[in-house]
Write a structure and sequence with these properties.
alpha/beta, Elongation Factor Tu (Ef-tu), domain 3, Rossmann fold, five-stranded parallel sheet, about 20% helix
């Protein structure tokens, strides 16, 4: 396993609780849209076994052409040991990246794409939208739907509707409006539905989509292939 050590070059306060850590790109480090990586603090591999409390599975919120690796995360006042350490890091601090992979690259199958996310889960979709806006080949259109009860919506510069490019973006701050809209979107029986958020959020979205007739193969999750059946085998209420 190759571990890439790199430095923080910028810290962006996206909202009062959300920060993006911009990291230098190590030589030979590559990724694609929808990628996640293991993000680790100094000392995580100092002992015989890795210290898992110093490692987190994080989405990369940038594309390679932006020349920095963006890690966007929510840090609440009461948070884990990992987030506490992260909050105290500064520009120039060393961090490690390893096991980088994408489970949710943008599928170009001449279909409508729907991006369903909760809160900071939108970070996973930012690169997909940028990739689409740069090159719309074989994608009919994209609609993004994000729920964030804090009302501090993320990346509003990227997630701004662009009708001329067949991209629409929608933010809601409550579950009732969110799931009503998911039901409406699921009327597209040929669409591709990407879902990013907590496991509970995934299960709830999958249940709504399946009840509306969306097939498991139309649902994309940021999960390893061997974990997909566990989420997609939701019982459908007839």
């Amino acid at each position: 396993m190759q571990i890439y050590w790199t430095k923080i070059n910028k810290i962006i306060d996206e909202t009062p609780e959300v920060k993006t850590y911009m990291l230098d790109c190590p030589k030979d480090f590559t990724w694609e849209e929808g990628s996640h990586t293991h993000f680790a603090m100094e000392g995580f591999n100092a002992g015989e076994k890795p210290n898992r409390s110093l490692v987190r599975h994080m989405s990369i919120s940038t594309l390679p052409h932006e020349d920095s690796i963006g890690i966007t995360t929510r840090i609440k006042e009461q948070c884990s040991e990992f987030k506490t350490i992260l909050r105290n890091l500064e520009v120039g601090s060393d961090v490690a990246l390893f096991k980088t992979h994408s489970n949710v690259p943008l599928k170009r199958e001449d279909k409508n794409v729907y991006l369903l996310s909760s809160g900071v889960g939108l970070a996973t979709f930012r690169p997909l939208v940028l990739d689409y806006l740069d090159r719309a080949d074989n994608v009919n259109q994209i609609h993004s739907l994000n729920i964030d009860s804090s009302k501090d919506f993320l990346f509003t510069d990227v997630f701004a509707s662009a009708p001329d490019k067949k991209f629409t973006s929608q933010f809601v701050d409550n579950r009732k409006d969110y799931y009503k809209e998911v039901e409406n979107l699921a009327a597209d029986k040929d669409g591709l539905f990407y879902v990013v958020g907590s496991d509970e959020f995934l299960v709830q979205n999958i249940a709504v989509l399946r009840e509306q007739g969306v097939k498991p193969e139309q649902i994309m999750l940021d999960k390893h292939p061997h974990m997909m059946p566990e989420f997609l085998s939701v019982d459908v209420v007839k």
